[in-house]
Amino acid sequence: MAYLYDKLKEYSKSGCYGFHMPGHKRNGGLIGAELPYSLDITEIDGFDDLHHSHGILKEAQERAAQVYGADETHFLVNGSTSGILSAVLGCTQPGDTILMARNCHKSVYNAVCLNGLRPVYIYPEILPGTEINGAVSAAQAEALLDQHPDVRAMVITSPTYDGVVSDVRALAGLAHSRGIPLILDEAHGAHFGFHPYFPQNGNELGADIVIHSLHKTLPSLTQTALLHMNGDIADRRSVRKYLHMLQSSSPSYILMASIDECIRLLAEKKEELFDGYTRLLDGARSELACMKHLKLFESEIYDRSKLVIDVSNAGLIDREEIKKYTGKQLSDDLRENYLLQMEMAAPDYVIAMTSPGDTEQGIERLIKALFEIDGKLAKIDNNESLRAYQTGEKGISCRNDQVYPPREMDKFTNKVKSVSFMDSEGAIAAEYAYVYPPGIPLAVPGERISGKTVESLTQYERLGFNIEGTQIRGKIEVLENG
User: What proportion of the chain, given as a percentage, has pLDDT over 90?
Assistant: First the structure.
């Protein structure tokens, strides 16, 4: 069985001299940096072509499909973003209606804009007592499909950035009953399906297209991902067409070898890889459950690889006064005082992402640091509301009314003005506004900005978070007469 990395190593030692790209000519001494120049090649004889694979890359992608239980799998070297764009564009026609979760990644919104789609949003409820989006409701999706029979595809994110998992099987069945594909952004769930400690992956649960970011939770290089296709509802040929358009015509063989080696590890050492990891993770969760003021968040069905540390009831004593302790403060404390970098900070929580690559020493450092910080905190009774998304008794995420589809905003290019977040309520957004990570838009072009969204934007800004997507910091472009 041929693996790409082995073949690259063999070629690097062959003495063959290349009069072809890349320009470093596999001569690492030219730069003097410890980078894998010797393995970096282009599409030369014997190494196949990702866009027209028939040899080693074809075999590698077929191997990945087998490991993940998919009908068809494609290597992504432009990250999950290229897969999401290709999936949405390939499953819709310009101007179509699409049903999508409002907490989808910005790449889904970009696909909506590129194809001039009309989005219908599923708003996940906010989990009680948190600022975290819950699962996508199949009942809500069904009601929206009844209201919009012209929907041509459904897109959801599961697990979410925070680790919340939706009932993919029910949503896939619902989509199929209407003859439309379910596109599953499972970027954060590339480790699903390899151990009973974690949920099944989307291929096993009936999703038509599944996108996995290998680099997020598995030992693969940054920018590596997979797109899987199943069944005959999704237009596979069209999706392939967009993959050819949107992926680099000079894909990195180092990145593709990284994907192939990750698949080899899953195929040959799955039990060894995950048994030790899950024991370590479960032990950490048991210990962290004993914290007094910090709290380990868990939902009904969730990705246990994510350690979500809730600070909503934690206060910091300052001159005999207890002040609210924020997720950003916790993240800063861990980085500055313990040299521990978190994945993400939100007003009321931080996310520590784990993977099979974590060591016992690394996990112990985190546990020790959290307990030390926990010991310096106090309970806060009059908790200042930092839950920017929450409103109403059921915790429904804040909503902006959609006035125009995002693509239609192009016609208003010369009719916009910039206003402060505080002054934007009631105006129609002409640009995106989001915090990254996780990259979920708080405002989308064409939406009328609600008071809750203004509250979210100003809260994030006051707490030191960067609002991205806007041209001018602290302001957002809106229609002049919207």
Answer: 81
pLDDT tens readout for residues 40-71: 999 999 999 999 999 999 999 999 999 999 99
The token pair that represents 392 in the structure block? 């109403």
Task: Judge whether 438 and 327 are in contact, CB under 8 Å.
Answer: no
Which helix (H) or strand (E) segment is 274 a member of?
helix 253-288
* Element holding 367 (H helix, E strand): helix 360-376
- Looking at residue 396, its pLDDT comes to 44
DSSP E strand boundaries for 64-168 = 72-76, 97-101, 118-122, 151-157
Question: pLDDT tens digit string along 445-475?
Answer: 999 999 999 998 998 888 888 899 999 999 9
pLDDT in tens, 385-430: 444 333 333 344 568 999 999 989 888 888 999 999 999 999 999 9
DSSP assignments along 395-453, one per residue: TBPP--EE-S-GGGGGGGTTSEEEEEGGG-TTSBBSS-EEETTTTEEEE-TTEEPPHHH
b/e per residue 10-36 (b: at least 16 CB within 10 A): ebbeeeeeeeeeeeeebebeeeeeeee
Q: How many residues does this entry show for the chain?
A: 482
**Alpha carbon distance 296, 310 (integer Å):** 6
| CA dihedral (293, 289, 345, 391) positive or negative | negative
3-state secondary structure of 97: strand
Cα–Cα distance, 299 to 3 (Å, whole number): 40
d(CA 290, CA 222): 34
Among all chains, which residue has been given the structure tokens 């819709």? 92
107: tokens are: 């790449």
Identify which of 99, 102, 97, 103 has the alpha carbon closest to the alpha carbon of residue 115.
97
How many other β-carbons are positioned within 10 Å of the β-carbon of residue 199?
A: 22
E strands within 158-195?
182-185
The sign one gets for the Cα dihedral 7, 8, 14, 16 is: positive
**Cβ-contact 259, 226 below 8 angstroms:** yes
pTM above 0.85, yes or no: yes
CA atoms within 13 A on the CB side of 157: 28
Strands 209-212 and 182-185: parallel
Nearest Cα residue to 391 out of 318, 456, 478, 321: 456
Count CB atoms within 10 A of the CB of residue 419: 16
